[in-house]
Amino acid sequence: MRFAGKIAFAIVAGALLFSGVNANAYEGGDVSNGGTISGKITFSGTAPARAPINVTKDKEVCGATEHLSDLLIVGAGNAIKNVIVSLVEIEKGKAIVAPSSNPKLDQNGCVFTPHVICVTAGTTIDILNSDSVTHNVHTYPEENTAVNKAQPPSLKVISIETEFGEEDPMKVSCDYHGWMSSWVGIFEHPYFAVTGDDGSFTIDNIPAGAYEVKAWQEDLGELVKTVGVKAGETTTENFEFTK
Ligand SMILES: [Cu+2]
Predict the structure, then answer these.
(1) Looking at 11-15, 126-130, 176-180, 186-190, which range is the least confident one?
(2) Could you count the other beta carbons within 10 Å of the beta carbon of residue 148?
(3) pLDDT tens digits, residue range 73-121?
(4) CA–CA separation, 211 vs 206, rounded Å?
């Protein structure tokens, strides 16, 4: 009996451990009480001008056109581009929809385009080399497997598998051209957005409730606010960064 009891205990403990792991997984489905958070990300004060990139290698290709730094892009109305806005640790909500094709980061003219993308964990990202020079793709994940691989012009695609969400965006850079970088937000849930030229974002179909919303920018850091969401309504929440 004592032996059987120990086995039973082991099974129960194992089941608890397993369910504990599962409890962290995002649960996607229909949302009947969804609301929206939208807003605009702006810079307070006089925005610094984008610095020209100093091309120090492969000048005939990388320096064929002038590139400006993507570190901080502030446009009309002080709108900030390439800010990642996301809900923090939401565990249940709308379904994750897999993209119809793998999201791409293209190395073209020795610049990553787009500069910032976001995906859900499990998505494969294709890193392209559209240049006639060799790049070296180097990723800096917190949880996922790092990639550090040369990409000559003959190797058109390096596919990067994502498996886990990352608390902070993952940097992707090129070891051969020090100015080349991009950022990939990897989330366990589908509640994220990247601002465009006008600095605006919209995150929809959020179950009613209160959420922490994080706005992240590579140069300025992050801002976090608690935002309430009501069913069928849009809550406007703006974020203002400063240096
Ligand atoms: Cu490169």
Answers:
(1) 11-15
(2) 10
(3) 999 999 999 999 999 999 999 999 999 999 999 999 999 999 999 999 9
(4) 9
User: Tokens 């964990």 appear where?
Assistant: 121
Residues 117-174: pLDDT tens digits? 999 999 999 999 999 999 999 999 999 999 999 999 999 999 999 999 999 999 999 9
d(CA 136, ligand 1 centre) in Å: 6
Cα separation, 143 vs 170, in Å, equals 10
CA of 170 to the centre of ligand 1 (A): 17
Does residue 197 surpass a pLDDT of 70? yes
The values of phi and psi at residue 68, to 5°, are -110, 150
Distance 110 CA to ligand 1 centre (A): 5
The DSSP bridge partners found for residue 36 are: 234
Give me the residue spans of the domains in the chain: 26-241
Residue 61 CA to ligand 1 centre (angstroms): 11
Centre of ligand 1 to C-alpha 50, Å, is 20
Can you identify the CATH homologous superfamily of domain 26-241?
Cupredoxins -  blue copper proteins (2.60.40.420)
